[in-house]
Amino acid sequence: MKKPKFQRPTGMHDILPEDQGYFQKIYNVCETVANFYGFKKIDTPILEDTALYEKGTGLATDIVQKQMFTLRTKGRNYLTLRPEFTPGIIRAYLEHGMQTLPQPIKLYSSGPAFRYEHPQAGRYRQFHQFNLEVIGDGNSVIDAQVIQIFYNILTEIKLKKLIVEINSIGDNQCRPYYKKLLLSYLKSRDLSLCVDCRRRLRENPLRVLDCKEEKCQRIVSQAPQMIDHLCQECHDHFKGVLEFLDEIELPYRLNPYLVRGLDYYTKTVFEIFEDTEEGRKMGSLSGGGRYDALVKLLGGEDTKAIGGAMGIERVIATIKSKKIKTQKPSNPPIFLAQLGIMAKRKSLKLLEDFRKVKIQVAESFGRDSLKAQLKIADRLGVKYTLLLGQKEVLEETIIIRDMKIGRQETVKLEKVVREMQKRLKK
Ligand code: ATP
Ligand code: MG
Q1: Which of 12, 61, 84, 127 is the best mutation target for the ligand 1 pocket, counting ligand atoms within 8 Å of the beta carbon and taking the most?
Q2: Are 236 and 89 in the same domain?
């Protein structure tokens, strides 16, 4: 095949018809589970003010430093394709005065997210997320519940051997002291860190814990741990979350070096993986955390909140590697074949009658040859073929052919919909 003149942008993908079923199935599960737990759907624009992410996601994050797709509008404003959902949703929460409604506000969304990453398996420049936020509640039971919801969604999609990794990264009271400790530890080893981490050292040493370079991970594995330095409040909160997780028997593992790539997190952070070698290679299927300082940072009142997101493509890749079956859309049970211009006209109308009673009927109206049409009917494996020819149109009848036993029968055209309803019910 000749190379086409235009190709999709690097790291971005077409979702072809054969893959749409996976997306639909996953979104269905997500929405059903989210609705059960009392979440309401919200859609926000895919573009937001660049400043929203600089302030919300945070200037020192990889996302803001390296991964944003930003464009300048004709009005000379800077807009960014959303790299994550949370800042846009908090913006909407504030803009629509949701803080005056009974709290918490529970919202879910889904759709594309954009990050300028080095494309590889499970890492794209345009990917899709399912996202949850609970705004206006600081209780540790909510943390456990948000984690449980993502876990339940993944289980419902039939993924097994899931593990939750969890950590607390403290808050403004206890984190500054820990940061100092960490900084002095890392500084004593800064020559062995990667270039990015040496920069991170100056901006936010916690970011080093999130580095995926092996040499940095080796250094991190000996670093002081945040959980040893939590203040009383954060300690109690974290203990509460773990007790709730124990209660619902969710498999989790403490990961004292889990910090995650966003600046706004406080207290609980989590990621869910498939606990196998491939799962680890794939990376987190879902991740999130508490962000008690973000709403205020974006101009609202002091409001505690927590959220998380799931990466749809990674979930699909995992499903495919496990050969988990998703339901294929069912083939239509009937094929409508026509011969001659009069029959073509009548067929167009007859198809509408079937649509109204929600019976799926396949056709190939563009074709004139009966043989070609019957070939298609055969390939589709329909139960019945309806044949409308010149003679039938004049007599106001139609032929019903039972494809399995090969028997044909002529019925009145006006009765055929009712007749087919009856036969398909059997
Ligand atoms: P990672 O550590 O693998 O880079 P992340 O911490 O940047 O992930 P989040 O911001 O927590 O990811 O996004 C939530 C989920 O979205 C991830 O768990 C993952 O499943 C998915 N995800 C994140 N980045 C990408 C990407 N570039 N391509 C595909 N999926 C992604
Ligand atoms: Mg990332």
Answers
A1: 127
A2: yes
